[in-house]
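Exercise (ungraded).
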Amino acid sequence: MKNLQIILNAILSKNIFEYILVDTNLNVLSASDGIGKYLWSVPKEGEDALNYLPELVGNEEEIKSIFTKKYCLYSLESVYKNEYYVNITVEYCDKNTAIILLHNITSNTLAAQQILQYSNEAALLNNTLQKVVDNQSSLLFVINEKEEIAFANQKFLDYFNVKSLDGLKGMKLKLYKYYDETLKSYDELYQHIYGHESSISIEKDTFVIHVSQIETTHKLFTLSKVTEVHKKKKRLEVELQIDALTKTYRKSYFDVQLDKELSEGNPFALVVTDIDDFKAVNDIHGHLAGDTVLKEFSTLLKDHLRQDDLLARWGGDEFLILLKRTDEENALHKVEELRKMVDEYLFSHNEDITATFGIACVEKDDDINTLLLRADKALYKAKENGKNRVILKKA
Amino acid sequence: MIRKKILLLGDFGVGKTSLICRYIDNTFNDSYLTTIGVKISKKLMILNDIECELLIWDIEGKTPTKSIPHSYFKGASGAIFVGDVTRHETIIGLNEHINTFLMMNGDAKHVIAYNKADLLTKQQIEALDVASNVFLTSAKSDMNVEALFSTITKEMIL
């Protein structure tokens, strides 16, 4: 026992270890003086060691087995004791004595705690940021240098019905194709849309798409769903192009389409028509009857045109027809059909209604003005020749 | 007097230390301080004339890179598994904690705390479908903290 005390004192001089010597009932035999800093007071001989070291409760049998086995695997790491951190181990001394060692690891543990604190705070912050991102109404995704989706928020995963980012990686989504079929990468999409607002349609939905470079290798794409707004806008745009009375297009829209046909170099015919003696209809039957005739006349024409032909009201009782992919012969044939149909149609107020038509087929060097002028001249000529007829004028 | 060792287990930052502070000292601090290792607190309880000293082990939380040393589990009579009800992954992770603990302490009792319940709306709380051994707790508002500890104590002693 005396030798043991000498060895222990040598160890204790380093101020790293403190000890309690216990008997087979785990009652205190003696303790180092310095142990008080961990236990508030120095245990006295005969006291229950567990009163000072409740950490051992529940493990009494295992610790007591040390007296028969001569070893004990019981040890506890990083136990907080009165502002110190200690490792607790139990060692065999002799058949009646065991030593409980308290190894001071405070400085190392506090350093480790600092690191753990930063790490856990960062993880919690990351968790909060993830929630913020997931709760955005927009679909967010990040593309890395390998053209892979490196991150996507919950809204994005939900939209594409994917449970996790890993599932998304397997899908190899090529969203740039929805923007433009010819694009081959997200990088090309980035080049197309960077710096301005663009829209992209995915299935039935329309999104406003934004992009920003978040690292040199990563790009953040944001898709904000605007399907309803987009539909309303489209509807409004169309409504603005429609004549309220006849439900035909306005001349402004017609001009745009005419210009488009001209620039694409497609063959087509431009027809100008008006109702013969329409002023008399207004004078005799009133303007309401005149409106009815205009509605019936335009409906009649519309119903007998192809789906991609265009009918527009130029003003008053004058209308414009764009017959796409139509040469002179077909134009004459088609318009003659329309004239006959109007002539034979029984209008609501029982008055005979006829219409006169002037045609101009597109020729080299034509523009909107030359075409309109030529078709208008053809109409004038047909009126001069007795109305209710069709005349085609060449350049 | 009998002594019972009881552990608080769960992921980091779920409020294990706060629950103990509320239970032992009736205090609460909003700032987060990571627990490292283990700190033991004592609470004397008398149930049906039985004097019991609860030895409550506040054990550091599990992180993605650091597991809890199994040496802490030895000799425990009960455990409270704590999850943060606002962090879904900490609730999902409870099963792993429970399984690991029960493998070492087959006869031990346990209850579950869905902590930080003060952050939920009334509707969210009503929508939660929880088992009978699950307590919606809040160390901040002192919701169900006493009930949590007294339930596990009764199960261990009686």
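Further reading is listed at the end of the chapter. For now, observe: The two ends of chain B are 14 Å apart (CA to CA). The CA atoms of residues 11 and 64 of chain B lie 9 Å apart.
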